Q: What sequence folds into this?
């Protein structure tokens, strides 16, 4: 039987309902799974929401859909979830404490930590930190955090066909610190974390200057790059594979994928949203679900 994939429609004021409907009807999706949409997505469902505007009601509706989909995934009624984008301001307006899907899903599944990976044929990038201010990144990057991120990445990549993963760590500072001249974190934090993982048999190298390491990965030298912060990792992914990359949460007890873009309030309700990333997210969720649930 085809796996049942929950598609959450995301923020009802954004493009999520549109791309969820388009993906659920796409022949490439229907060929590999049974898609089930969670959350407001019909014209009647969406009538109470003003397209392109942040509201507490939209944030709550998006949360309720995620909660229902995760509950069904944990109970085995669906085999994976693929999520359309939510709006962080709408979550905050609704009084919800989570900054995005990743921390919410870790909470709902009881995971110690959820880690965001962007997956494309050309490039895989894992984020050590996600939705925090740039000013907070240096003190958030600890040896324990980097070790944990590398170990989780090494453990999870074989699910994606990289049986002996080669991992690179991007430096935090320009030129990976230039031997301490441009910042101490690369030598004091990142390098010892990489060394500890190497001692445990993980094929990981770095830290490397961030201005070239993603290019090296694109050329096939590495299977994944650990980025220290959000934009360091997302800029190369979106340059290389925007609309085709898939956001995957590592470290959960369920399979979860998502799109590589946001709610696009500026075009919500106009019928012109590109569902390509949503289609890829559902297809990857189906492939991962088959690997998890096949004896």
A:
């Amino acid at each position: 039987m085809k796996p049942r994939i929950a598609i959450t429609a995301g923020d009802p004021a954004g493009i999520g309902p549109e791309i969820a409907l388009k993906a659920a009807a796409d022949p490439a999706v229907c060929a590999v799974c049974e898609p089930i949409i969670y959350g407001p997505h019909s014209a009647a469902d969406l009538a109470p929401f003003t397209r392109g505007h942040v509201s507490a009601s939209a944030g709550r509706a998006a949360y309720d859909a995620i909660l229902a989909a995760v509950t069904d995934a944990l109970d085995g009624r669906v085999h994976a979830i693929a999520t359309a984008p939510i709006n962080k301001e709408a979550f905050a307006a609704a009084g919800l404490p989570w900054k995005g899907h990743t921390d919410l899903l870790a909470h709902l599944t009881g995971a110690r930590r959820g880690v965001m990976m962007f997956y494309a044929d050309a490039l895989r990038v894992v984020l050590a930190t996600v939705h925090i201010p740039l000013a907070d990144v240096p003190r958030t990057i600890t040896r324990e955090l980097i070790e944990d991120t590398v170990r989780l990445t090494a453990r999870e990549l074989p699910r994606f066909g990289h049986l002996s993963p080669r991992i690179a760590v991007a430096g935090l500072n320009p030129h990976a610190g230039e031997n301490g001249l441009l910042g101490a974190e690369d030598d004091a934090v990142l390098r010892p974390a990489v060394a500890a993982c190497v001692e445990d048999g993980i094929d990981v190298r770095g830290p490397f200057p961030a201005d070239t390491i993603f290019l090296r990965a694109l050329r096939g030298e590495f299977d994944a790059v650990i980025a220290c912060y959000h934009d360091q990792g997302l800029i190369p992914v979106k340059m290389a594979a925007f609309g085709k990359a898939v956001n995957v949460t590592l470290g959960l007890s369920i399979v979860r994928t998502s799109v590589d873009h946001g709610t696009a309030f500026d075009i919500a309700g106009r019928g012109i949203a590109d569902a390509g990333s949503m289609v890829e997210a559902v297809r990857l969720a189906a492939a991962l679900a088959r690997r998890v649930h096949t004896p």
The chain has twelve helices and ten strands.
